[in-house]
Design brief:
Blueprint lengths: L3 E5 L10 H14 L11 E5 L8 H7 L20 E4 L2 E4 L16 H19 L18 E3 L9 E7 L11 E10 L5 E11 L3 H12 L15 E5 L2 H14 L6 E5 L7 H6 L2 H5 L3 E4 L2 H12 L7 H15 L6 H11 L13
Amino acid sequence: RGDRFIIDDANNTMDMESEAIRDNTNMWFTEVVPDRLNSPVNSAIVVIQQRLHEEDVSGTALSRNMGYTHLMIPMEHDKARHCVTRLGDKVWEDPRTEDGELAWPERFPESVTTQLEKDKGPYAWAGQYQQSPEPRGGSIIKRDYWKIWEEEKYPGFDYIVASLDGAYTAKEENDPSALTIWGVYKDQNENPQVMLIYAWQDRLEFHELIQRVTDICTVDPTPKSHPRFPIDKLLIEAKASGQSVGQEMYRLYGMSGQFGIELLDPKRYGDKVARVQSIQHLFSSGMISAPDRAFADMVIDQCAVFPKGSHDDLVDSTAQALRWLRDSGFMPRRDERSIAYEADIQYRPRMSALYPV
């Protein structure tokens, strides 16, 4: 035991991709380390480390609100993550005010940091120097790709699809269920657009999951504890739990005519990363928007850290919905619409009548 327990880089960079190793390290940190203090009141634990993953030791201490004082000094200042913290009886605030200001320009001038970022790549630079497991601006689906819908009311939607990634269990260690709802509309130039109009994630038992989806997606939800959306199609990931959910939803509503139900094989487009990469172009071309709401921030945040985040259920739901809309013809890109238009207006000889008039 000791009065000061100092942990320096508890997570190994080479082992960070292993979920089993992360779990073992976090178990040691949460179950063994706290008992190694002489005085639970006056002794202290100090954690010093680069950020490698949302579920590294630092991320665990922060997400569980374990009482740690968080001191964060990124190499390049980021106003969105400006650090103000209490050290003893004093408050410390990062003195920098502008994005990109260097923490130690005498030792790490701009020429050095630029080369370091180039050499290490976005993930290593973000974790080791920016103290974030997320590369600035996001990874596959960058934050800047999302267009923010700032008007009070949603546009008129031509089609609404709900996408469910189901995992019916209330146990904390298992993944939550996640649902995203998307509306298809056209902008002022008649270009197709898709908007995230609602989302949630929660750990639910089977009957609770069925009730939650029912409350949101049916014409007359009871109880009316959630927003209701007149969806046209319910997409369900056809993994083990999804099969059961799909069968139950079809039994309850398949013949009602309220909405269609379709089970989708998640491996049809490869692994999780491949599925997200297959829809990235829809974001980068400006076809995806979201309102300025808390549920949208939740989805944007999870997409931004993927595949380095601790959960990806909302990402799976998003990829499933947008991939289906794309394959179903709801989301042709502008260049594809131009090609189709050019083909339509090409000269074609007039057809002669079969019979004289």
